[in-house]
UniProtKB/TrEMBL annotation:
Annotated signal peptide: 1-29
Keyword terms of this UniProt record: Signal
Pfam families according to UniProt: Peptidase_M61 (PF05299)
SUPFAM superfamilies: Metalloproteases ('zincins'), catalytic domain (SSF55486)
Protein name: Peptidase M61 catalytic domain-containing protein
Domain of life assignment: Bacteria
UniProt keyword Signal present: yes
Residues of the Peptidase M61 catalytic domain: 144-177
Disulfide bond as UniProt keyword: no
Species this chain originates from: Pseudohalioglobus sediminis
Length: 320
């Protein structure tokens, strides 16, 4: 059975242990890669792309896959796939459509405009967002805030960890997202769960997505503070993957497992706080604990002190 979620749109070398070009009857370019744990990824690119574009797109997909190992060292599933199909559209919006399909093999499908350029793909956040969805076991339907929040948070962390954006860019992008969530005020007064339930019909996407991202930043920060930087969200997700990566769990079940893994109640406490919140929580106090202040529309990062040291640790996984 296939389950889908859809979207409109320091290097520790664990990849490229093996990469081979398989001659497919369809002339579809298919590369097979393995991570350090021997987990397998198949990358296939539509033959409708020009040959040189296919090579560039395959390289981009390898970058996405590598970035995903910068959370807990291996890919979430024993087998997964990235498929890239052609799409029509503007080169300014190189990935107009993408989706994650869950099944025996998790599949991330990208629809990429045929006249795209590698640089445009490399700058596009969508790819990093989509692969970040795989960090959670399949959660069933509902509670979009949870999976979208995790992907919105990690898309920025894994790009910075892979050296594709700077630390400044990472926090700036997170700040910009939180501001979009805060500015989505149409449903203030309603709980996050209420807004989430009616989101596809009435909107409120930014409130839902960025409330979720706030949840994971708050949880990550609290775990790191309590452990002196030795245990964070990366560890909790690895433990969740170890126990339940093949399972279909509801969000309350995932939260229970995350609390059990971390031997604390951080996730359930924040869940209670957030699910009843009637507006987007404020990220500025969280940023202050990381030596980040806001000047106009920009983040300002402190250079020294304990908060700055704590902040820089987000550029490394606590699980590696
Ligand atoms: Zn998403």
């Amino acid at each position: 059975m296939t389950r889908r979620t859809r979207h409109l749109s320091g290097r520790r070398c664990l990849l490229a242990i093996a990469c081979c070009l398989l001659a497919m009857a369809t002339a579809r370019a298919e590369h097979v890669l393995y991570d350090a744990d021997g987990r397998r990824l198949e990358v296939s690119v539509s033959p409708r792309f020009p040959v040189d574009s296919r090579q560039q797109i395959t390289h981009w997909a390898e970058q996405l896959a590598h970035s995903l190992t910068l959370v807990y060292g291996h890919w979430p599933r024993q087998r997964w796939a990235i498929e890239v199909e052609t799409a029509s559209g503007s080169a300014d919006d190189p990935i107009p459509w993408a989706q994650v399909s869950r099944g025996d093999t998790d599949r991330v499908s990208f629809y990429v405009v045929t006249n795209t350029h590698t640089d445009a793909l490399a700058r596009e956040w969508t790819g990093y967002h989509e692969v970040s969805h795989l960090l959670l076991p399949y959660r069933g339907w509902g509670d979009t805030w949870f999976s979208e929040g995790l992907a919105s948070y990690y898309q920025n962390l894994i790009q910075a960890r892979a050296g594709l954006i700077t630390e400044q860019d990472m926090w700036q992008r997170l700040h910009a997202g939180f501001v979009r969530g805060r500015d989505d005020t149409r449903f203030d007064g309603l709980s996050l769960i209420s807004v989430n339930r009616q989101m596809r019909r009435n909107g409120g996407y930014m409130r839902v997505y960025w409330s979720g991202a706030w949840y994971f930043l708050a949880a990550d920060l609290r775990l790191r503070q309590r452990s002196g930087g030795s245990y964070g969200l990366d560890n909790a997700l690895r433990d969740l993957n170890d126990c339940c990566g093949e399972d279909a769990l509801s969000v309350p079940e995932i939260i229970h497992q995350l609390d059990a893994a971390s031997k604390q109640s951080v996730f359930s406490e924040l869940y209670t706080q957030l699910r009843n919140a009637t507006q987007m929580p404020d990220h500025v106090p969280l940023f202050a604990e990381l030596g980040i202040t806001i000047a106009g529309d920009d983040v300002v990062l402190s250079d020294s002190g304990a908060a700055a040291q704590r902040r820089r640790q987000f550029l490394q996984s606590t699980a590696l």
